[in-house]
């Protein structure tokens, strides 16, 4: 957990020692505390001992697959932000990375300043969720720290993307959110998700899980021709 007066602690896991060296130097210049690991084995030790506020994770490690590592970390600590790094530039790889629970995704080579901007954005979202750890809306309870959603006390199992979609709607509750806003927030610039029907399908799946009667939704209402609005 980041305290206001502390330097955020970052863990960078990458088997490229040159990248580790350059990132550590540049991130420390911007007042981050940085620990590096060149394998998943070393990364696990650092997570346990250093309790990082954010992880920068390479997709391809010699002793582990970044997608599975991301799922493992998120399963134990859902609120811990993870930014994926990869040399792969295919849209499908980006989508898989984000669907695994990664908070953001960057393709090598990248500009350090852009990475820093994304780190700060992830940490801002983390601090916002820590300020109000549990939010109650109607019969729904959202535990932001543990990434748990309950309806009438019963835990609702959401995919990482469904949870992120719910949080985005909740953060903007009372306001009309366009499909383009949802796409831009959840899928960045992934063109594969430019089709608005995909957004509608995700909304439909979310309604089926949180609404008592999905055909007459209490929480997520459709604003015809524009997008959606979450109840206040």
Automatic annotation (TrEMBL):
Assigned keywords, A-Z: DNA-binding, Phosphoprotein, Two-component regulatory system
Protein name: Phosphate regulon transcriptional regulatory protein PhoB
Domain OmpR/PhoB-type, residue spans: 132-232
Modified residues (4-aspartylphosphate): 58
Signal peptide: none
Xref: Pfam families: Response_reg (PF00072), Trans_reg_C (PF00486)
Cell division in keyword set: no
GO MF annotation list: phosphorelay response regulator activity; transcription cis-regulatory region binding
Feature: DNA-binding region: 132-232
Keyword Phosphoprotein: yes
Biological process according to GO: regulation of DNA-templated transcription
Domain of life where this protein originates: Bacteria
